[in-house]
Write a structure and sequence with these properties.
heterodimer; A: 291 residues; alpha/beta; Rossmann fold; 2 domains; six-stranded mixed beta sheet; four-stranded antiparallel beta sheet; 13 helices; 22% strand; B: 488 residues; mainly alpha; ABC transporter involved in vitamin B12 uptake, BtuC; two-stranded antiparallel ribbon; 72% helix
Chain lengths: 291, 488
Amino acid sequence: MADVRSADSNAADTVVAVDHLTMRFGGLVAINDVSFAARRGEITALIGPNGAGKTTVFNCVTGFYKPTEGMITMRQRGGREFLLERMPDYIISAKAKVARTFQNIRLFGGMTVLENLLVAQHNVLMRASGMSVLGLLGARSFREAEKAAVEKARSWLEEIRLVDRADDPAADLPYGAQRRLEVARAMCTNPELLCLDEPAAGLNPRESAELNELLLRIRDHHSTSVLLIEHDMSVVMEISDHVVVLEYGIKIADGTAQQVRNDPKVIAAYLGVEDEEVETVEKRIETETAQ
Amino acid sequence: MAVETEGAVPSTPEGAQIEDEARIAAAAGEIPRARARAQEHGIGRGVREGLLAAFVALAMLAPLVGLQTDEDINNKLILKTRWPLLALIVIVVAVVRFLMITVLAPRRAARKEAKASGRAAAATPSGLRRFFVPFAIAALFAYPPVVLALSGIQGSLKWVDNFGIQILIYVMLAWGLNVVVGFAGLLDLGYVAFYAVGAYSYALLAIHFHLSFWVLLPLAGIFSATWGIILGFPVLRLRGDYLAIVTLAFGEIIRLILLNWRSLTNGGFGITSIPKVTFFGIPFDASQNGFAHLFHLPLSSAYYKIFLYYLILLLALLTAVVTTRLRRLPIGRAWESLREDEIACRSLGINTTNTKLTAFAIGAMFGGFAGSFFSARQGYISPESFTFIESALIIAIVVLGGMGSMIGIAVAAAVMLGGIEMLRELTVLKAVFGPDFEPTQYRMLIFGLAMVIIMLWRPRGLVGSRTPTIFLLQRKSISADMVREGHG
């Protein structure tokens, strides 16, 4: 709890604050009173064993689930605030500027790589096409807007090294390229917060290292804060500025990668403890939380 | 091939190595080897399969074709035999099966292999398509004068009306439905409802308010689009089978309302003497101001039909131009991405509600245009014209043509409707099956057979590939197995 309060005190830094989030599915409590804050310009990792509720937190933040209780506040650079738990998913992306990717890649497989990136710029292009009326008449303003959108897509393709595959169907790309494309597609919506659901899943070590670089570039050059779920500890420990650990829907640790790594509760959650040691470890945890 | 050497190699350590290599080579060349085997036994296998097919045909058809019950002069039931006909059919079956195995199957295997090895090369669109479209449009414009020259004024009536106008109405309807089914991937089984709304809007407003066709055409489109949105709202959350059922029910509701609201629609008797379309105010009748009189032409209904032909041709082309342009706009890409993955769409900030509703509204609008044209052309409409079978026919055209492909759909409409009409013309069949044979009685059978054959031959329709809406370096068409069909 102390962490949340400290995050609130320097609120200017917070990009998204999750307060007392609870999500119940019938009798199952997927998340139980979780609070944390992701700071602007940082990469925040959400980790935990399988079934800890990480993706549920993500789905609440991006509006795909409506939380049972709690508040999620998105604070934009200009100071505008959005209460994400009250907004439909597509408005969260369009107005609150929160973009996301999916655990199992959701590209538009039958559309080309370039088309995927243009669909991500739908709202900008839709306005430029005068809700399709100007576009239907072939207005110059729309053609220019489209050209700009293609340029933006091209710059992202250069970033993810897929320019020469621009006109191939997305389903035809190798797995690693599909992951990169999904990140680029999310970035084409101009987000202030990018939520990545296991971006390194299924990548080989080289691709995983490339992804790390891409995420660092996104943080540093595109001034986008990143919230990511990851199982691959090499990704988490190398690039994240801040790590939040969940277990059974409860937050068990929150801090820098180094702090979290040495936390006995985290070690217990990930590695388990010997039967004889359970009591001693529990006692130690209790005394620590009491302090 | 390396396989043959395998047995001959001695099993010394050196040889074992060679043997391994041979095995690897054989594994790599698995497909050619399988093909070689198929070719080797091609004739033998063909004979075997042919005989098997002949046996099955004989067993199945012997009672069906070989025996015929008839009445003699005393009205007694007698049994006739038709062994020669049975023998002929069985032989044809055997030969066809033999040819399929020996000629068709190797060719198909070769094509599949070529496709697998050079997918990118095969995926580039041919120049044929670019050439085909202007040529087809020019041919459509030249069609009435050519028919007029070939078969005279009265003779041309049938060709322009039954073939030209009839087919073009369905082309237009199928292009309109393509927006909903082909682009947005929403299976709409009640499309004929919008056709009905357009037709009744024109009929009722023209009769009661004496408005001209040119005013009522856009109005009918607007009314239908409104109904499209009204249908769209309740079905927004539905997908797949459920969406299909609700749209199907919607089509039936509209038809039943038209049938039962007698004070307005005259029920099952339909609406008669619907005003004709005028040629910019010049009516097509025998009066002093009539078209024939003004242009010093002999009085004939053929001119009206030719005028209607050009009118529906222009309306269909308008549909084609608007829908292809919309497809390249952000809204069109949103429709297609909705078909590919709705959840991803929402994550990118696309309002899927509005996107679905615009698809329904625009599809319905073109249905309304076609409906108002239909009612002006017929002069008489009744709920009979708007049954479910019409919806099914339009859906069938869209699916057979290849969902999303304008050219494929136009060709499918021409083949399906033209084919049915053509059956009437086939007097040759009478010479084969005797003077009592009425080919039109078999049209639904042939229709169904044709659909099955097209679906077997091309599971994703005549034109299955998708053309990208925009390209960076090179335009490549996307093969059908990548493109999703939507949630239903």
